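Forwarding the complex inputs:
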Amino acid sequence: MIRIDCPFCGVRDHSEFSYGGDGSIEYPALDGSMQDWHDAVFMRENICGVQTETWQHSSGCRMWLLIERDTMTHEIHSVKPAHAGIAKVLEAEK
Amino acid sequence: MTRFSAWSVFWNGLTAQRGWGRQWRDPEPKAHYDVVIVGGGIHGLATAYYLAKNHGVQNIAVLEKGWIGGGNAGRNTTIVRSNYARPGNREFYEHSLRMWENLSHELNYNVMFSQRSHIALLHSPAAMDRAARNYNTMRLTGTPDAEIWGLEQLRKTVPHLNYDTHARFPILGAAVQKRAGTARHDAVAWGYARAADQLGVDILQQCEVTGVVRKGAKLASLQTSRGEISANKVGFAVAGNSTRLWQMAELGKLPIETHKLQAFVSEPLKPLLDQVVVFGIGGAHFYISQSDKGGMVFGGDLDWYKSYAQRGNLPIVQDTAEAAMSILPCLGRVKLLRHWSGVMDMSMDGAPFICKTPLDNLYLNAGWNYGGFKASPASGWYFADLIAHDRPAKVIENHDLKRFERGVNLDERGAGPDPKLHG
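Prediction (whole assembly, two chains):
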């Protein structure tokens, strides 16, 4: 069991959370090129080592988190709230 | 090398089994090969075998970082089926199933292929309709053994499932493929290794690729733990770690994430289950069969987060046990013997890649998701064909890395571009 230190709820088992995916993806503008959207949607760096990824505390505060986790050892290096990439896209839309 | 036959088994029985030699050589690596396949799993070994047999390539090596059959070849639930409905998938997997039917004979090695039928349980009228559509498609496109069973026939065949009408998901029927079944996974790896070795393929174990040397748009050589090896053509067949090799060759990103999938085996029981039974609805996913030794072999969902670690987590153990109890309550007091985990290439549409790459002499075989074991004979067949002729066969024309750019998805489940959802 991985234990995740949720900034809002404290340390909880990972079974309370839902794994999102690669948190380093920068989504292009909505009218961005087909190639940029293809790369964002389909292509992955698939890091073996420390990667930034999104998790949602779905059985807790329901906040989305950005977590730095080692994909080989499962050690967690940092946890912080919010999906910066999506936030940026939404910001740009305003 | 002694060929296996009824006579050789009989004779060795009379002579204290002293007549058996090594099944394959343990050669020293040469500096250069015509074709090098990286990955000594079933896909890699099958590719080497068909390159030598179908295409007459003489000078082939298979590089394996551990021992052959020690990766995902030995970490699956050994299910073989071809119940696919999408074009591209159905021809490919049906070809594979037809190869399985003759594999023991082809390799002169008993792979214990047992066509005991694959029974996918259905729990709602909508699921029955969807299965009928898919299985009708199969019947119309060359898979004659697809059937939809009602409750009566199912009860007669597998009487000890949980048929309680008050169950959370009552069983209404099943989609059945009768030629599907199981095989002995180690035997398949060993059989291909032995047959490839007889055709002169060098199987180099404990030979890990540590670097890729490029020369322009070509792959010049591979740095390995047993020295540098150059080759005219190189094939990667290292599902689970495809990205790591891909990035050693500085080729950037792949439409693949690495996830781990667990499997389980119970203590041996007397004959209990004579089919492969699959239960999948809502949050549950469960598939079970009984091995020839009597152990119940079963698996469930992947671990839900990306991982390269070949060890499973405990919530999935519980999850799988709950699914087992809801469908086969008679397993309640059976002890789990062991569980293990393998890392898989989960692709963006749940379908594999057998294709050319941006490098002229590099070929990729990757992205096998949950289904690599059953695919291995056809995977080797078509990958060998691709490497030999430098063009994809018609069947695998959409198994390339560019299919998403063309808007082509071989997404059997319709789950969308989220690798962990392609169960």
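The mean pLDDT of chain B is 95.
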